Amino acid sequence: MTGRIRELGPLLRGRARQEGLVPALAGLHAALSPRAPHHGPTGFAVAPAELADGGAERTERLPGGEVVVLRGEPGAEPEDWGEAVVWLRLGCSEALRETAVGHLGERVSGGSALLHRQLVRAQLADALTGQLEVRAVLDRPEPRTAADLAHAHDRLSAADRGLARLLGASGYLLGGPGHVADVSALLAAAYAHPEES
Amino acid sequence: MTDRWYRELRQRFRELGADLRPHALELDRDPEAIRAHFDLPAVRYLAAMGVPAEYGHDPEPIAGRPCHGARARERVVIMEELAAADAGMLVAAPGPLLAGVLVGLVADERQRELFYGRMLQRPLWTFFALTEPDRGSDAAGLTTSLRPADDGGYLLTGAKRYVGNACRAQLGVVFARTGPGPLGIVPVLLETPAEGFTAEPLPSIGLRGARISAIELDEVRVPAENVLGRHLSPTRRGMWAFVQTFNLLRPGVAAIGVGMARAAHEYVLAHRRAPSKDERRRIDALGRRIDGARALTERAAEAVDARTSDGHLASAAKLRAGNLAEEAALLACEFFGPAARLEHPLLDKLVRDAKSLEFIEGTTQVQQLNLAQGLVSGKVDGTRRSA
């Protein structure tokens, strides 16, 4: 861990939360892999389309731009990369939480907003707990291992699934918040390290 | 029907499902690709599934007896097997499904002849439009209106969302309001294209074969004879009708969940070479969970076949199987490392497809509330309590 992640991490989180996944992903590459998309341990890269030189395995059209999945040889991981990706995903997850709370506050069923339902609040609380846990892990003074980061990715993916569910069918549309959450999970797929066996 | 007959039915549809799987990724890329596969036996069967024998439906016999797919218990076997092959192809296939069940419940004889006759002529997509923008399927908040027209018919105005196959359907059911309260809701049969009717596909994360659509209705003319259940009292058509319809269909949705979970489980069995002892234990545990969900789904189907209002088991089955589908897809990914979704396109598709089950026919919370209500009202084990 370097002193730089102490600044870069919250910056990426804020950008993801305020502007979205694509601008934050562009910021991540600009800071740590400016010349080319970084290919993770299994050879996959997830990057803004403008950084790719063609050859995308898949293209995801999100608010704020396109994200591509690229396949190649694993690259040497830039220092702080793994942790920076977790910060970015935390910001995306928090943005999804805000979207969910807004949606549930406006959505009336049986005469009251869904946000007032206990079952709904329980699901929100579960997701929030996952996010708070990740934040606590990231804030620890000790260095984070690859296993710590993989665990954080799992917590965020679970939180995102719970939050996307609260959006009902509207969370299942391409270009919507559920799609952003799904692409965020692909960031974990590309950049989390396999467990040592 | 005997257990042996259901086993034969399962075996037959396992064979038919094998023809669907090769097209799974093609359909995920292009939901209209189904049009090239109308000749597949499974797709041909689904095109008329649920049409009763007396309207001329004559499917191939299974162990000497035809299966019309008119009973939930039959449909759960068929839908599990075809979803285990590919849920996308299953939901993309033309056929009467939701609309057909409603027609069976509330249509008069002329309406049945019209609907079933059309279904047997050639493969047609149908739709079932209840959900509205910003209101989900909260029937109390339904605002699509049906008001009398000068010609003795009606005019339909409003909007519907997340309606499977509506953008390519020729026939469908729309729920609308003629007055306030639960008795003011009526279903109408709508033939499309129709002036004032537009339906646009809503691109989705997964289950793209379902072609979920947004419908706009701008004074669409509905002949009086297309109001479903005209011959019934208001208490036996609107709200009552769709509750019964969902009760009858929910075990089928649960069966799709069981099928999806099985697809994930079978993928691991086929592709995880030399699993460790611990991995074998986890694979076996998932298999047992799938068996349990199947048992619950079959019981739920029997319960709604016996009495359409008996929907609490269907809620339990949908709750269990719907969540299991997503869990199984994620568990399957764990056997192939963090990049599983990027390296295994079919697993990626399963993860995306399985997410759809949360909002199809009632969310987790809706099912939990149904079940709790069934418990406190004494439906579950016959002990009445005051709620």
UniProtKB/TrEMBL annotation, chain A:
GO molecular function list: oxidoreductase activity, acting on the CH-CH group of donors
Family annotation (InterPro entries): AcylCo_DH-like_C
Protein name: Acyl-CoA dehydrogenase
Organism (species): Saccharopolyspora gloriosae
TrEMBL record, chain B:
Name of the protein in question: Alkylation response protein AidB-like acyl-CoA dehydrogenase
Requisite cofactors: FAD
Domain Acyl-CoA dehydrogenase/oxidase C-terminal residues, every copy: 237-375
Lineage of source species: Bacteria, Bacillati, Actinomycetota, Actinomycetes, Pseudonocardiales
Keyword Lipid biosynthesis applies: no
UniProt record similarity statement: Belongs to the acyl-CoA dehydrogenase family.
Superkingdom of origin: Bacteria
Presence of keyword Cell division: no
Record InterPro entries: Acyl-CoA_dehydrogenase, Acyl-CoA_Oxase/DH_mid-dom, Acyl-CoA_Oxase/DH_mid-dom_sf, AcylCo_DH-like_C, AcylCo_DH/oxidase_C, AcylCoA_DH/ox_N_sf, AcylCoA_DH/oxidase_NM_dom_sf
Residues of the Acyl-CoA oxidase/dehydrogenase middle domain: 128-220
A Pfam family it matches: Acyl-CoA_dh_M
Cellular component aspect of the GO annotation: cytoplasm
Signal peptide: none
One GO term of the biological process aspect: fatty acid beta-oxidation using acyl-CoA dehydrogenase
The entry's keywords: FAD, Flavoprotein, Oxidoreductase
Molecular function GO terms recorded: acyl-CoA dehydrogenase activity; flavin adenine dinucleotide binding
